[in-house]
Amino acid sequence: MPSYKAPVDDTLFLLNDVLNFQRFGNLPGFADVTPDVLSQILLEAGKICEEALAPLNQIGDEKGCKRHDDASVSTPPGFKEAHDAFAQGGWISLAVPEEYGGQGLPYTLSMAMNEFASSANMSFAMYPGLTQGALAALLRHGDDEQKKLYVPKMAEGRWSGTMNLTEPQCGTDLGLLTTKATPRGDGSYSITGQKIFISAGEHDLTENIVHLVLARIEGAPAGVKGISLFVVPKFLVDGDGALGPRNGVSCGSIEKKMGIHGNATCVMNYDGAQGFLVGEANRGLNAMFVMMNEARLGVAMQGLAQSEVAYQNAAQYAKERLQGRALSGPKDPGKPADPIIVHPDVRRMLLEMKAFNEAARGFALSAALDSDIAHRSDDAASRQAAEDRLGLLTPVLKGVLTDLGFENTVKAQQVLGGHGYIREWGMEQFVRDARICMIYEGANGIQALDLVGRKLPRDGGRAIMAYFKDTAELLAPFESDEAMKSFAAPVKAALDDLQKATMWLMQNAMAKPDNAGAASYDYMHLFGRVALGVMWVKIAQAAMAIKAQEPERAGLMDAKLLTARFYMERMLPETRLRLTRISTGADTMMSLPEEMF
Amino acid sequence: MPSYKAPVDDTLFLLNDVLNFQRFGNLPGFADVTPDVLSQILLEAGKICEEALAPLNQIGDEKGCKRHDDASVSTPPGFKEAHDAFAQGGWISLAVPEEYGGQGLPYTLSMAMNEFASSANMSFAMYPGLTQGALAALLRHGDDEQKKLYVPKMAEGRWSGTMNLTEPQCGTDLGLLTTKATPRGDGSYSITGQKIFISAGEHDLTENIVHLVLARIEGAPAGVKGISLFVVPKFLVDGDGALGPRNGVSCGSIEKKMGIHGNATCVMNYDGAQGFLVGEANRGLNAMFVMMNEARLGVAMQGLAQSEVAYQNAAQYAKERLQGRALSGPKDPGKPADPIIVHPDVRRMLLEMKAFNEAARGFALSAALDSDIAHRSDDAASRQAAEDRLGLLTPVLKGVLTDLGFENTVKAQQVLGGHGYIREWGMEQFVRDARICMIYEGANGIQALDLVGRKLPRDGGRAIMAYFKDTAELLAPFESDEAMKSFAAPVKAALDDLQKATMWLMQNAMAKPDNAGAASYDYMHLFGRVALGVMWVKIAQAAMAIKAQEPERAGLMDAKLLTARFYMERMLPETRLRLTRISTGADTMMSLPEEMF
């Protein structure tokens, strides 16, 4: 069975030493989180993930979810108890405002916990994860009554949440959505239609399930401008929150899929179910985007989380598996062979994972901090800047952390050779589970289009211009810093590539949008390499400062600096290749006649 | 259910128009294969794969193999009938010499058939594939009696073959092998030990199973120089080939694994089983290498095969799935949405697969032709040159075709979005099945080390020098050819990168072998991009000639030229990145202390 140890120390290093968590003390919810409290919360978070969730990961994969003839769904053995413990630990309500029964703590802590939980058991973590997404949408767009009715029970973990977008004919293109909402005359609606791929759509973990559903009110305009958001509880709820009769929504079947077997992916049939409008009519997509943006960061974390747990097990194996001898001569002549970690190519694989994991964690946590600033700061300019950054970087995080996260699970599996392919070792489950992250919450190609087509041009390019300016300002002082130069200079060169690519888009995509489409995926990855490089510069800066002041942490900090160097030497140079590809444009690929594919 | 259409036309184009198959008419077995016969054989090959094997692929995955209490193993429903049909069609014995009941046809045809069969049903194709590998080893290293006893029955498909190398403590490092061989005094040996990961180790497809087993004769030297090869039939065989009593070998269990569920991966227990030495004592590794080299080409074909079938289904889906509108405006305004193939990023994914598949097929078939030359030519210089090329390129083929083949299955799955993750669509099976190709027959990291550590320096670098010379000679005339220049010039630049990388290795790896290890994986992929580029140059050359002479093929040839251009613009430039990585050496990765991983 694979093992998992939550990277509490690394998370603390990133929050405290790299991202200066304490400087946000003026934000609501932050003041109480002193370094001691922070450390205690993360240790507790790690503990429940290691002890309660990780041991259920393989069982969940093996047993999966079962739909019974009465359309009820059982989750794998142990999931119910684990969900109770998770809810009672307050992990769902961490960032929910205190007035709704939550703890009002930073969203950033919730994100850190999401990483641990997703590493330990991604299928499980999706249940509370979806609840958190639904909570965010209700808190932002629900009216007071809806908030009072649903939020406290969901925060408590007694009720869970889902998001219902996809239909058989309507995936990426939500304009094709046909689920109908008919006014009942009492202010509520009858919802009728079929939704597919609904994660956690039906299960036995909670007393009620609160579905957030996109549907089209009769007579609404066609396309995305006629879509509204509804809350549709599995059991109807009276004004006091007591459960009433079963609503007209049920699970038609659960999908057999490649991975995340422990999470029930449901076909949900709405058959005149009573639903309640959330926010304004025909503005449902806007409301759902709140949930989707939150979910995209969550999925980015899942990508990182699978990479982290896969890495841990690969590194362990590489230190223990004796096979062959070091190229430079036996390292352990007393044993029949050396551990395979003596081999450069094994170290290459491990370092590619490690250099990703540590920077990606910093990148994601920094985005979570931006989310906290955007929602909690009382300074309009700070809010705006954070929102700009978050909007710009969310597709990069989602696309890049899940692509590279998946690749890393494949690499980690490779370290184990044949054993990596055998189920009991658990490595192949990480690959199968991680694979979904590249697809759901907007396939990564859609993230790339969102970045290039929407996020770059928005507000006259304000967000990207600010990103260029901030990054240049970060790097400038290091030009004359002997120690930092070797990290900052390659990132500066990579930033130049990103700027050139952006310029190319400005010059070539307006007149010919296909050029934007053809460039989008490479642009997203180019951006990702730069962003991870920027994080390594910040980590290196922190590591040097710590080395000078705290000799007992010098060994760990040297490891950070070596990993940063590895990133600069081997991973960052990809930006040039991406720029080269981008510059070739769309002509060749668009010229091939359809029938020649 | 996914569909499959064997790429017979493309294979014919490559063999006839690009590789000039007919010019090998002087080799034994080639003369009878006129263009008509060739076409007929490939059409028949395609037919049985499409009609008999492909329909069993999902069933095989779903049902898998079962080991019963008596240690017998059942294959999935339909496999036995399909194996009979495959054998009776003469597909196992295609390249076996006529004196042993085979058809003596070119090995190249067998390889083409292997691609089709592996696309249609990889788990199934492994059974006859392993028989063919065992046949090759027996034909090369067995004595006359062994050949007469085993080969005809195996060629007929009544008996099958396996290769037994791996043990729990001994994977890549065969020196650690402990399976014992004790002389019985009658010239035979008692074999005792445990082998793991034995594909097709036990099953119900054939009357007998002929195991080729590596073991150490009592008193033999330690390490790889004390390993011998034995043939150990499941049922002992009398001098006439009649089946005798059960031998002391049995299946202890079958592995649960990520994919290839239709193939039984067995733990094989040898408990004093009677075995017969093949070739010389203590020279077993040499004999096994024949089988392994053949198997490596076969695995390369599997990588391509999975990429091909995954591509076909992704392309089909992209033409049918209506979702969103073209960036340049609606392509099909009468329908609710355009097919997703209008999107540049979808085309990018499809073209990355297509540009790989078509060149990789040419690359693999050209290696198969080299194998035919090496084994059948009566001209020593030709044999030598072909053997050199084959030795050099085998690790490149195995490593690169399986890495990119797997990546392409992931890409193809991505084209289907959420449906790609659902089992019934079949795309995720291609991913799971393709994944093993990067691991077995020498993990790809081992291929890279074999290339850099063994194949490059062998015979004073004769093979790589010849490769450089041949490629330079191919490209030189195109420098002044207006039409061909745009294909040849980028390949020339990529070849320069490969030469620089080779030079870097010569200068840096002798004194410090870790530099070779650190460079090996990138070097292998750099080489692969060049080799595929060379193939695209040859394809482009053929396409232009055909365009000029056969106007009815012009459309197809234009598609070839566009795909070649796509390769040059988007895929070949990776060589520079690989060179950059190689040049950074091993220092950084070797400096990180083991405990910091």
UniProtKB/TrEMBL annotation, chains A, B:
It catalyses: 3-(methylsulfanyl)propanoyl-CoA + oxidized [electron-transfer flavoprotein] + H(+) = 3-(methylsulfanyl)acryloyl-CoA + reduced [electron-transfer flavoprotein]. Residues 282-451 form the Acyl-CoA dehydrogenase/oxidase C-terminal domain. Its cofactor is FAD. Residues 76-157 form the Acyl-CoA dehydrogenase/oxidase N-terminal domain. Gene3D superfamilies: Acyl-CoA dehydrogenase/oxidase, N-terminal domain, Butyryl-CoA Dehydrogenase, subunit A, domain 2, Butyryl-CoA Dehydrogenase, subunit A, domain 3. Its EC number is 1.3.99.41. InterPro entries: Acyl-CoA_dh-like_C_dom, Acyl-CoA_Oxase/DH_mid-dom, Acyl-CoA_Oxase/DH_mid-dom_sf, AcylCo_DH-like_C, AcylCo_DH/oxidase_C, AcylCoA_DH/ox_N, AcylCoA_DH/ox_N_sf, AcylCoA_DH/oxidase_NM_dom_sf. Keywords: FAD, Flavoprotein, Oxidoreductase. One of its GO terms (molecular function) is oxidoreductase activity, acting on the CH-CH group of donors. This is 3-methylmercaptopropionyl-CoA dehydrogenase. Belongs to the acyl-CoA dehydrogenase family. Involved in the assimilation of dimethylsulphoniopropionate (DMSP), an important compound in the fixation of carbon in marine phytoplankton, by mediating the conversion of 3-(methylthio)propanoyl-CoA (MMPA-CoA) to 3-(methylthio)acryloyl-CoA (MTA-CoA). The keyword Cell inner membrane does not apply.
